[in-house]
Specification:
By secondary structure, this protein is mostly beta strands. It has one helix at residues 23-28, and strands at 8-10, 34-42, 45-52, 55-56, 67-73, 76-80, 84-87, 92-95, 101-105, 109-116. The chain is built from 1 helix and 10 strands; from the N terminus they run βαβββββββββ.
Length: 125
């Protein structure tokens, strides 16, 4: 199975301007192991919701985009080449462009991510 087929990734914004975004309802309806939904576009950036119920993402990097993670619930681990960062609820962390990383969870975790609209979530090859 190709790496990107392990994940449910929806790049098209699910909500437009002046629409209420009910994050708890999205989370409650998510049964996938690794789910990612673009909530909306703000200027040239995407606000994305990650519902990571179990497992890990593959090692990857983004050559031209930084990636911001903000944990809402659970705990997100971001493995870097020389360390692992643990993010608990209300912790944020930015991975700069070009840095190899691998997010993973040990428990169901909900994360907001902010990235430019040019990002390829599975990384640049």
């Amino acid at each position: 199975m190709a790496e990107n087929q392990k994940y449910q990734i929806h790049m098209q914004p699910g909500f437009g301007f002046l629409e209420l975004i009910d994050v708890p309802a999205i989370v409650a309806g998510c049964k996938e192991k690794w789910f990612n939904q673009t909530l909306c576009k703000v200027n040239d950036h995407l606000v994305r919701l990650g519902v990571f119920n179990e497992g890990e993402f593959h090692w990857h990097k983004h050559d031209n985009e930084d990636e911001f993670f903000f944990v809402i619930t659970g705990e997100l681990f971001i493995e870097l080449e020389n360390e692992t960062v643990a993010l608990k609820p209300h912790h944020g962390f930015t991975v700069p462009k070009g840095v190899l990383h691998r997010p993973y969870v040990k428990e169901p975790t909900v994360v907001l991510m902010v990235e430019t609209d040019s990002v390829m979530p599975t990384g640049d090859k």
